[in-house]
Amino acid sequence: MLMAIIYRESGFRSDARPSRTRCLFIFPGPRPSSAYGYPQALDTTWDSYRKQTGNRGADRNDFDDATDFVGWYCHVSHLRCRIPKNDAYRLYLAYHEGQGGYNRKSYRKKAHVKQAARTVRALSKRYAAQLVTCEREFQETGGGCWFWPF
After folding, report:
1. Who contacts 21 (Cβ-Cβ below 8 Å, separation ≥6)?
2. With helix as H, strand as E and coil as C, how does 8-36 read?
3. Pfam families, alphabetically (predicted)?
4. Which burial class, exposed, middle or buried, applies to 134 when counting CB atoms under 10 A from its CB (0-12, 13-18, 19+)?
5. Domains in the chain, start-ordered, CATH in brackets?
């Protein structure tokens, strides 16, 4: 599930950022948010993660740190929003909208967010199936296995 969220947010690009707005349809303007890195985490949320976990040296463009962050955020969503830990659809809604937005159901009128959550759910199932196959291959051959993002 964590990999599915990261893929949806950044396409596994370490330096992903939201596109800039445009001034006068030509000149690049400011970015709409401070989202950055694999998890597309906002500055304030990333700072909360670093303080609460004690992982003060964590970087959003480090895959291990980004994966830990997404796991932390899903755990907090589980606690604050009472979302089951295996519900990729609802955990993504909380990830995208924030826990407060999720609890206010801000996603209800956002078809693109609900579609993204369906995509995360489908990718999560695909990755879980690949993991089972990979584990079986590893046990049989002692070799590795590749995950395909789509």
Report:
1. 28, 29, 30, 31, 32
2. HHHCCCCCCCCCCCEECCCEECCCCCCCE
3. SLT_4 (PF19489)
4. middle
5. 2-141 (1.10.530)
Phi/psi of residue 116, each to 5°?
Answer: -60, -40
Please say whether the dihedral angle defined by the alpha carbons of residues 72, 65, 123 and 94, taken in this order, is positive or negative.
positive
Question: Contact 91/83 with Cβ under 8 angstroms?
Answer: yes
- Record the tokens describing residue 111, joined without a space: 């078809």
Q: How big is the chain, counted in residues?
A: 150
Instruction: Give the position of tokens 């009128």.
Output: 109
pLDDT in tens, 103-132: 999 999 999 999 999 999 999 999 999 888
Helix ranges, the chain (H)? 2-10, 43-53, 63-81, 88-103, 111-141
The per-residue pLDDT for range 30-59, each reduced to its tens digit, is: 555 789 999 999 999 999 999 999 999 999
